[in-house]
Amino acid sequence: MKTQLKPTRRKSGFTLIEVIAVLVLLGILAAIAVPKYIDMADNARNRAIDAGVAELNGREALTWGNVLISDTGYSDDATTFGAVDTALGGDYTWSAAPTVAGGTISFQGSAGVALTRAASTATQPGTWSR
After folding, report:
1. Nearest 10 degrees: Cα torsion 72, 73, 75, 77
2. What are phi and psi of 114, to 5 degrees?
3. Which residues contact 85 (CB under 8 A, 6 or more apart)?
4. 61 with 128: CB under 8 angstroms?
5. Cross-referenced SUPFAM superfamilies, in alphabetical order (predicted)?
6. Helices (H), the chain
7. Of the residues 51, 64, 72, 81, which has the fewest C-beta atoms closer than 10 A?
């Protein structure tokens, strides 16, 4: 009697070593990507505050120029500052109304950032900075 050999079938799938290797690679990628993402969100908030400062400086310069060419001309810093629109929009909030010396502003509820304001003179507008 002749015995018949069964054809060998190739099993498909992943070995345990292959699965572990993929998990290790995913863990390494996650360890690199997550801190970068967290830093990116903080960096975006900081850039938004910088954009707000640039906007305040632009408004300050525009108001100062308008005061200079007005009939009355430049009188003092407090009068010029009083004409500047410091409301930057819904995403920005002042902890208290800004003053001629500066104030504390935040973007989308982040921690407040202290801003200082250099006074305007007859030859240059006031400037805001961190």
Report:
1. 130
2. -80, 130
3. 59, 63
4. no
5. Pili subunits (SSF54523)
6. 16-69, 77-83
7. 72
Read off the tokens for 115. 């801003």
Q: How many degrees, rounded to 5, is the angle at CA 122 between CA 119 and CA 125?
A: 45
pLDDT digits (tens, 9 = 90+) for 84-126: 999 988 899 999 889 989 999 999 888 889 999 999 999 999 9
Q: How far apart are alpha carbons 112 and 8 in whole angstroms? A: 71
Count CB neighbours of 14 within 10 A: 10
| pLDDT digits 0-9 by tens, 22-53 | 999 999 999 988 888 878 888 888 899 999 99
What are the C-alpha distances in Å from 84 to residues 65, 100, 127?
11, 10, 12
Helices and strands, number each (H, E), in the chain: 2, 4
In the numeric block, the tokens 């200082």 are attached to 116
Q: Which residues pair with 106 in a beta bridge?
A: 93
What amino acid occupies position 51?
A
Write down the pTM of the prediction: 0.71
